Amino acid sequence: MTNIVVLVKQVPDTYSERKLSDSDHTLDRESADAVIDEINERSVEEALKIKEAGEGEVTVLSVGPDRATDAIRKALSMGADKAIHVSDESLHGSDMVATAKVIAAALGKVDSYDLVIAGNEASDGRGGAIPAMLAELLGVPQLTHARQVTVEGTSIKVDRETEDGITHVEASLPAVVSVTEKINEPRYPSFKGIMAAKKKPVETLTVADLGVDAGEVGLGSAWSTVLEASPKPPRTAGQRVEDEGDGGSKVAEYLVGQKLI
Amino acid sequence: MTTHRSTTATLDPHDFLAIDSLLSDEERDIRDVVRSFVRDHVVPNVGQWFEDGRIPRELPRELGKLGVLGMHLDGYGCAGASATAYGLACLELEAGDSGVRSLVSVQGSLAMYAIHRWGSEEQKQEWLPRMAAGEAVGCFGLTEPDSGSDPGSMRTSARRDGDDWILRGQKMWITNGSIADVAVVWARTDEGVRGFVVPKGTKGFTTNDIHSKLSLRASVTSELVFDEVRLPSSAMLPGATSLRGPLSCLNEARYGIVWGAAGAARACYESALDYSTTRVQFGKPIASFQLQQQKLATMALEVNRATLLALHLGRLKDEGTLRTEHVSMGKLGNVNAALDVARTARQVLGANGITLEYPVIRHMNNLESVVTYEGTADVHSLVIGGAVTGIQAFR
């Protein structure tokens, strides 16, 4: 019996225009369609695969505004069993440290967990530090950037892939895992899953319910402040190589310079 | 996957009337899943399927896994979704290709529905779960070479021989015919028109594919031949004893077409909208020209009107108040509208519009079948005409 908690974040659709609000430089949620982060579909898929290989329960945990219920419902329709939604006005503008604290506190509301699965980084903030911070706060092992996960009894084995190569790591449960996009191909929710999703329990909690001081979270308590934001300049034209008989070498030099070969 | 939450606060060119806001979360979720499936599995490949004149053998299983096969039926492995949700699925499938939607319609609304509605418990248990999963493909034999709009003139017959039935005759224009594991076949008997469940491989039952089609090429169309086919009494659908049997199934399938046509129209409109804003002539996008804008406006109008009509019929069907005459109006109106949109989009795309690089001529050619199958536009006009005048023109 493996109890798995999957961390799910609702993010602006990468297909739509994403921007920060003019007033406080936090994410402008109204300007874009909101979807479950693609990496979280993979996180849910991995949790479901582990559950289906043995026995267990998959709980979705999301910290986000009210409309994050859409992302939660997507995870439930894929096959997760229940959900916890932490929604509180005071969380607006929270940084990663505060978010990790809230997630850690919310995990205290789960009966017991063996494994927490997160995406390696969200496609909006791209901080990528939540899984490590969370493991630290929980005092459990962190196995990040997993491209393969195997759970055997009370131990977990992970192929951890970074730019430098693949590391085989192992830990005992409970543990926090973050997955990369190579981990799997997420399933489509089945229609039965979609119809069952709305009947699955979703517990909505505030910061106060978690025993977290509202003064510790939110924009005012963030350790860093966004002062200014501007869109990336449009891409400039590529580099032109004149072939004077050494075109091949120059192309190769360029590719080596870019660490592509 | 994009979940549009259109409201009238902003104007979405892809959902001008914010029809999305009329759907429930569940309906939107189901629609989004089918839309992603079509985007990932159908759109990138269907041009080639059309070119090759085939439908991939694994597609039924993929559709079964998705859950669309018989999704509006209850029990026996079917999802039990609402008629509206089923309609939305048909819309998204046909935005991919009418042939793919036809496969799903024939499987779910004709073959599975016939067994679900008119079959014995044993027939349901034997076929429906496998058909819902796409492990077994079904086809539906009503039309004959000389019996189309007038199914009462069918020649295929079945006669009792002891406990068995002997089926003989020929069916024509049968979607999924040669790939089907089971055929639901209608025949005249001494007891009226009856349906029979005929598994592939039954002695005397053969199929021949119809080649050289210029429409619905990503779909199998066959002739079914029954040469003194001996069937056990358990092969007969016990519930149906008249043409009402097959006609009830056709009404189900036509309902899906009402939605599907709106999908094909949407795909053509979107293709034309995209093309017109990027194709530059005379130094500016062709969408800048009034003649193109008029085309785009008309197409957007027709797509929105067709979708609203389909949604209205869906709500009536879910309430249990949908009449066959309503479905006739929906099919007549939406398929004709879709054909107009497809032809208009074809012109916006110029020469590019005649290739399979773009979806429009494929939809345009497909719709030429859709407008006459499952009741021709003419017959649906007569059904509506009969309903508004009280005078039946063809009976």
Automatic annotation (TrEMBL), chain A:
<dbReference type="Pfam" id="PF01012">
    <property type="entry name" value="ETF"/>
</dbReference>
<keyword id="KW-0249">Electron transport</keyword>
<dbReference type="InterPro" id="IPR014729">
    <property type="entry name" value="Rossmann-like_a/b/a_fold"/>
</dbReference>
<dbReference type="GO" id="GO:0009055">
    <property type="term" value="F:electron transfer activity"/>
</dbReference>
<feature type="domain" description="Electron transfer flavoprotein alpha/beta-subunit N-terminal">
    <location>
        <begin position="24"/>
        <end position="214"/>
    </location>
</feature>
<protein>
    <recommendedName>
        <fullName>Electron transfer flavoprotein subunit beta</fullName>
    </recommendedName>
</protein>
<dbReference type="InterPro" id="IPR014730">
    <property type="entry name" value="ETF_a/b_N"/>
</dbReference>
<keyword id="KW-0813">Transport</keyword>
<comment type="similarity">
    <text>Belongs to the ETF beta-subunit/FixA family.</text>
</comment>
<feature type="region of interest" description="Disordered">
    <location>
        <begin position="228"/>
        <end position="248"/>
    </location>
</feature>
<dbReference type="InterPro" id="IPR033948">
    <property type="entry name" value="ETF_beta_N"/>
</dbReference>
<dbReference type="InterPro" id="IPR012255">
    <property type="entry name" value="ETF_b"/>
</dbReference>
<comment type="subunit">
    <text>Heterodimer of an alpha and a beta subunit.</text>
</comment>
<comment type="function">
    <text>The electron transfer flavoprotein serves as a specific electron acceptor for other dehydrogenases. It transfers the electrons to the main respiratory chain via ETF-ubiquinone oxidoreductase (ETF dehydrogenase).</text>
</comment>
<dbReference type="GO" id="GO:0005829">
    <property type="term" value="C:cytosol"/>
</dbReference>
TrEMBL record, chain B:
<feature type="domain" description="Acyl-CoA dehydrogenase/oxidase N-terminal">
    <location>
        <begin position="24"/>
        <end position="135"/>
    </location>
</feature>
<protein>
    <recommendedName>
        <fullName>glutaryl-CoA dehydrogenase (ETF)</fullName>
        <ecNumber>1.3.8.6</ecNumber>
    </recommendedName>
</protein>
<dbReference type="Pfam" id="PF02771">
    <property type="entry name" value="Acyl-CoA_dh_N"/>
</dbReference>
<comment type="similarity">
    <text>Belongs to the acyl-CoA dehydrogenase family.</text>
</comment>
<dbReference type="GO" id="GO:0033539">
    <property type="term" value="P:fatty acid beta-oxidation using acyl-CoA dehydrogenase"/>
</dbReference>
<feature type="domain" description="Acyl-CoA dehydrogenase/oxidase C-terminal">
    <location>
        <begin position="248"/>
        <end position="385"/>
    </location>
</feature>
<dbReference type="InterPro" id="IPR006091">
    <property type="entry name" value="Acyl-CoA_Oxase/DH_mid-dom"/>
</dbReference>
<dbReference type="GO" id="GO:0050660">
    <property type="term" value="F:flavin adenine dinucleotide binding"/>
</dbReference>
<keyword id="KW-0560">Oxidoreductase</keyword>
<comment type="pathway">
    <text>Amino-acid metabolism; tryptophan metabolism.</text>
</comment>
<dbReference type="Pfam" id="PF00441">
    <property type="entry name" value="Acyl-CoA_dh_1"/>
</dbReference>
<feature type="domain" description="Acyl-CoA oxidase/dehydrogenase middle">
    <location>
        <begin position="139"/>
        <end position="229"/>
    </location>
</feature>
<dbReference type="InterPro" id="IPR037069">
    <property type="entry name" value="AcylCoA_DH/ox_N_sf"/>
</dbReference>
<dbReference type="InterPro" id="IPR009075">
    <property type="entry name" value="AcylCo_DH/oxidase_C"/>
</dbReference>
<dbReference type="InterPro" id="IPR052033">
    <property type="entry name" value="Glutaryl-CoA_DH_mitochondrial"/>
</dbReference>
<dbReference type="GO" id="GO:0004361">
    <property type="term" value="F:glutaryl-CoA dehydrogenase activity"/>
</dbReference>
<dbReference type="GO" id="GO:0000062">
    <property type="term" value="F:fatty-acyl-CoA binding"/>
</dbReference>
<dbReference type="InterPro" id="IPR009100">
    <property type="entry name" value="AcylCoA_DH/oxidase_NM_dom_sf"/>
</dbReference>
<dbReference type="Pfam" id="PF02770">
    <property type="entry name" value="Acyl-CoA_dh_M"/>
</dbReference>
<comment type="pathway">
    <text>Amino-acid metabolism; lysine degradation.</text>
</comment>
<dbReference type="InterPro" id="IPR046373">
    <property type="entry name" value="Acyl-CoA_Oxase/DH_mid-dom_sf"/>
</dbReference>
<dbReference type="GO" id="GO:0046949">
    <property type="term" value="P:fatty-acyl-CoA biosynthetic process"/>
</dbReference>
